[in-house]
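seq as requested:
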Amino acid sequence: MAEPTRVLVTGGAGFIGSHLVNSLLDSGYAVAVVDNLTTGRLRNLSHQATFHHAALNDARIDQIIQRERPEIVFHLAAQSSVRQSAVDPVADADSNVLGTIRLISAAASEGVAKFIFSSTGGAIYGNPETIPCNEDTPVHPLTPYALSKHVGELYLELFNQTYGLDYTILRYANVYGPGQNPHGEAGVVAIFAGMMLEGKRPNIYGDGLQERDFVYVSDVVAANLAAIRRGHGRTYNIGSGERVTIGRIYSLLQDITGFDQEPAYRPRRAGEVLNIALDSGRAARELGWRPQVSLEEGMRLTIDHIRDSQARRNSRATAVPERRRP
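struct tokens:
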């Protein structure tokens, strides 16, 4: 029997990464994970995966690549907070630029066959004139985070031209789904749903008319799997192409959760994209990828997961230990 294909997933204990790891394991791949657990959680990770606790800018990355000998690298790990990137752009670049360069360089040196890079379609185009925008739309980052992702893309193109490292770049829309942290800076669906289920009033920054493109996590995983054997040296938008206002997201979640309070409106945050949606026609033609989960279905699945998680936490918190018999 042939040995399973070896793959490495950075950020594999995180939201998208853990979903990808599970799908790869189910498909028969031998999976190694690198995660510094800043936002990822070990409880998200299957025991079938080999785990390395390390940051991208850790010198051990070279040794991990040498030891695991992956044929494919899925690079999802990143400093992903847009606000934090503006507060501390040096730390953002240290992780997302220097860390990515270290990983790309190690992959090229060790003969990795394919490097699949998770980039951002929701931020990299800035405020494009034409929406939905395709991959030929001019890149115009408005934050250090978006810029750092674009630099990673450019380094992949360079290493492909100079060293022959094959790659596929996937530019995601706003990803949401079960397992996304409803606290802190997560996706707006997880934040709103988590607060509504706790009876708390969510904030909307701006007037709520800003438009976003939302894509369910299982569809993002499917795009990564499709890129294993397709999309050589190409860049793809991964989104629904639908423009949905933040206010509309709020209303849909109210309908599903039964939450009856209006949002608290706050000033719009600097660097925030006003309107974006992605044309994923190239991914359909070349990867055979199309989103399968509708926004309403994805929201219900996400809310069911958050509700179950809250019930488990409440059950543990209220559990009374049994008294020992004398």
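The chain has one domain: 6-313.
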